[in-house]
């Protein structure tokens, strides 16, 4: 026998669509990151990008628990002295709701060139519409209780 090693020609990437309405941000992000990495597939390999594409819709309706809506902060820096900017979750949700999910998922992916390739397969939209109907995405089946 021998150990099976996946080849680039063996990789088949599917498309999934996820409705973020009423979902908790961290739980949603961990499931999406798992699909982007390919950890749900039997051909998962740590050194290759075997994951699938994920489309997240209704990003503006994602939930957080506790007092995170008022206390969670997002940090940016312009690389100029004094160029730091802190944005609260509620302000970010009003202005750029798609960025909230993208940043949460990005933080759960590897911090290398493989992670940068994985995050490119994530498409996030604030509303219920998306332009990827040609890929015929399937709804993502959750490993959690709510499907």
Which features characterize this protein?
147 residues; alpha/beta; Ribosomal Protein L13p, Chain: A; two-stranded antiparallel ribbon; 5 helices; 6 strands; globular
Q: What features would you describe in this structure?
A:
- The chain is an alpha/beta fold.
- It has one domain: Ribosomal Protein L13p, Chain: A.
- The protein is built from 5 helices and 6 strands.
- It has helices spanning 25-37, 68-71, 89-95, 97-106, 113-119, and strands at 15-19, 53-57, 73-77, 84-88, 122-124, 138-139.
- α1 (25-37) packs across α4.
- The relative contact order is 0.23.
- The mean pLDDT is 94.
The named CATH superfamily: Ribosomal protein L13
Distance between the termini: 39 Å
Main sheet: strand order: 5-2-1-6
The chain-level structural class is alpha/beta
Looking at the overall shape, the CATH architecture is: Alpha-Beta Complex
Total count of helical runs of at least 4 residues: 5
Mean pLDDT: 94
Tell me the fraction of residues in β-strands, as a range: 15-25%
What is Rg? 17 Å
CATH topology: Ribosomal Protein L13p, Chain: A
Low-confidence runs of at least 5 consecutive residues: none
């Amino acid at each position: 026998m021998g150990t099976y090693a996946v080849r680039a020609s063996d990789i088949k990437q599917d498309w999934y669509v996820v409705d973020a309405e009423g979902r908790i941000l961290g739980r949603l992000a961990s499931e999406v990151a798992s699909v982007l990495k390919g950890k749900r597939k039997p051909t998962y390999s740590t050194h290759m990008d075997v994951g699938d594409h994920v489309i997240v819709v209704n990003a503006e309706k994602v939930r957080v628990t506790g007092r995170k809506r008022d206390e969670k902060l997002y940090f940016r820096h312009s690389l100029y002295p004094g160029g730091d900017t802190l944005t609260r979750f509620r302000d970010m949700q009003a202005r750029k709701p798609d960025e909230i999910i993208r940043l949460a998922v990005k933080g759960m992916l590897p911090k290398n060139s493989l992670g940068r390739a994985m995050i490119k397969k994530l498409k996030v939209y604030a509303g219920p519409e998306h332009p990827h109907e040609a890929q015929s995405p399937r709804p993502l089946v959750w490993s959690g209780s709510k499907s």
